[in-house]
Amino acid sequence: MNDAELAGMLDFLRAAERLKSTLRSGHTSAGRRESVAEHTWRLCLMAMLLAERFANVDVARLIEICIVHDLGEAIGGDVPATEQSGAGKAERERRDLLELLAPLPSDHRDRILARWDEYELAATPEARLAKALDKLETILQHTQGENPDDFDYRFNLEYGRRFTSNDPLIARIRAALDLETERRASEAESERR
């Protein structure tokens, strides 16, 4: 690696650090908003724990996809699922990702962009599993977070359903989280009365 490539890699890593302070709409169990980096960390942990249950999944590729799936949010921030219109989100995030990747040597840039595109298109077994786990991690956080009084738990009952209903194990995890979501929603409604 030459000096320019090293400098580019360090510039990229410094910029990616923004994910540590880029906040999501979910709250931690301590009541503060979680960061994109925290979400990504637990998503990778979930992937590591569950990947062996999926014979057709390359674990390293799955982890790479999980690591980069929200990387563009270092530039444009996170858009909560309840506020996503769908149109243009992926294009904006990809454009932001390209900006973030600019200092990297082309081989690294191409690899990260390929994994991000793979995730967006749900083009491989790894990408489809990453999508499912991403939705499940979000719901899991919402069921354990110390959320604001007006938090819409029931939104999660349909959130990401198309990615979490095809595999039996993923569907079982989803069912357990849906029960917890319903419990939290009922508790919140009772407290508001």
CATH architecture: Orthogonal Bundle
Let me know the number of strands: 2
Number of domains: 1
For the terminal residues, how far apart are their CA atoms?
Answer: 63 Å
Give helix and strand order, one letter per element, not per position: HEEHHHHHHH
How would you describe the oligomerization state of the chains in this entry?
single chain
Strand arrangement, major sheet: 1-2
What is the approximate shape? globular
**Low-confidence residue ranges:** none
CATH superfamily: Hypothetical protein af1432
Helix- and strand-based class? mainly alpha
Question: How much strand content do the residues show?
Answer: under 5%
**Biggest sheet descriptor:** 2 strands, antiparallel
> What is the helix fraction of residues, given as a range?
55-70%
CATH class: Mainly Alpha
In angstroms, what is the radius of gyration?
A: 17 Å
Q: What's the mean pLDDT score?
A: 94
